[in-house]
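task queued by scheduler; priority normal; single chain, no ligands, no partner chains; default sampling; output format set to structure tokens
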Amino acid sequence: MSTSRSRCLVVLVPFVLVACQSARSIAKNRLTPAEELLARAVQFHDPAGSWGRQDLSFSWVSKRPNREPVPYAIEMASNGDFAMRGQRAGMELEYRVVNGVVQAKVDGDSEYSAEVGGRMVLDREDGLFWRNYMGFLAGMPMNLPGERAMIETEVQQDELEGSSVLALRITYPPEVGTDIWTFYFDPETAAMRGCRFDRADPSRDGETIVFSGIERIGELRMPKERRWYMNADWRYLGMDEVMASRRP
């Protein structure tokens, strides 16, 4: 979970922890090719329409080159409550959002310095950063057709790691975010194969996330592995792996 990566993602999350327009609600109107593809993707990953309506519990394992894997225990409630527990910057982080109120402990202590709060990324978005960030990553593609998403009408043929994919581009109003997002889908199943963001500032490089595998989390088919690369030189940054919580 790279903090530098996080800055570019969280601008999209006012709508991540609710079930935004589903494939069925989109289908009430005449669809553009891009909207049709997105509806198919939502149907593939969330066939029961459970995103935002079902409590979820899973592990999110962060793997970085030359570092030990770091597991985070994640709980997402249908009412918007959220909990996360794991190691960050050598400290134990316990983080909860209950009825919109943030509760956090670092190494078991709810009293911590502003410096520690910054290292734990507890000082962003009124403390809601982790709920929003994890909700955005876990909720793709269900959370993509939000009210403020400006979806280009056409679908493009593209390649991702040598495989043919369908690509659609989404931008957002400046107050939401200035990055340009491209989302990649399997031509046959419409499963998400990855996404890419490019900076509005050409002097700053963007990143690509490549998805592989499927993990069943409740009724969801969530991408199991997400490998991160820099766009310019395809430098590998690390991988996040999703695993369903196992009952003893």
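post-processing summary
- Residues 33-45 form the longest helix (13 residues).
- The helical segments are 3-9, 23-26, 33-45, 114-119, 129-139.
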